[in-house]
Design a protein that fits this description.
Elements (H helix, E strand, L loop, with lengths): L12 E4 L1 H10 L6 H14 L3 H7 L5 E3 L21 E3 L6 E4 L13 E4 L2 H16 L5 H10 L11
Antiparallel strand pairs: 1-5, 2-4, 3-4
Helix pairs in contact: 4-5
The structure holds zinc ion (ZN).
């Protein structure tokens, strides 16, 4: 599979949901040359959540059971302290529970946002996804981004 994505054929406005924006904010490269870094910085600003969205979505790090019993704090049951690293108790088995890097929010308040991308920013996203694909590091949240930014370009039907 070569890098043959034609970015001229790609959209310049993309409708993104909360998970997709988080995936990009967490994953876009933090290293590169000065031009690509400026491009990524501007892109991050566009992807970032506004005060109004923070107010509406109420992001938090859910407690996850340390004993891996399967319990994870739900948005509906969230407690007052939502900060990363807080230690509490698993409500299912009584073991310890900790707030890890996972992010949750009020999904009933979720909406998609249309975000404009420059050609360079599209290139940055496409290169990032290709790299993850090559390293076999794509995860389910990346797949919808792949569909939106690359579509079926580069997918060899024989491979499917
Ligand atoms: Zn537990």
């Amino acid at each position: 599979m070569g890098q043959k994505v034609d970015i001229r054929a790609l959209v310049d406005e993309v409708k993104l949901n909360v998970q997709e924006r988080l995936t990009m904010l967490n994953g876009l490269p933090a290293e590169g040359d000065i031009i690509s870094l400026k491009s990524v910085r501007l892109l991050r600003e566009k992807l970032s959540f506004t005060d109004e969205e923070h107010e509406r979505l109420q992001f938090f790090h859910p407690l996850v059971c340390n004993a891996r019993c399967g319990w994870t704090e739900r948005y509906e049951d969230r407690r007052r302290v939502w900060a990363l690293g807080t230690q509490e108790e698993c409500e299912a088995c009584g073991a310890g529970a900790a707030r890890g890097p996972m992010i949750m929010w009020d999904r009933t308040q979720e909406s998609e946002v249309e975000i404009p991308f420059s050609k360079r920013q599209v290139r940055t996203v496409v290169d990032w996804l290709w790299k993850l694909n090559k390293e076999k590091k794509l995860t389910p949240p990346h797949v919808t981004l792949w569909d939106k930014f690359i579509g079926d370009q580069g997918e060899d039907e024989e491979d499917l």
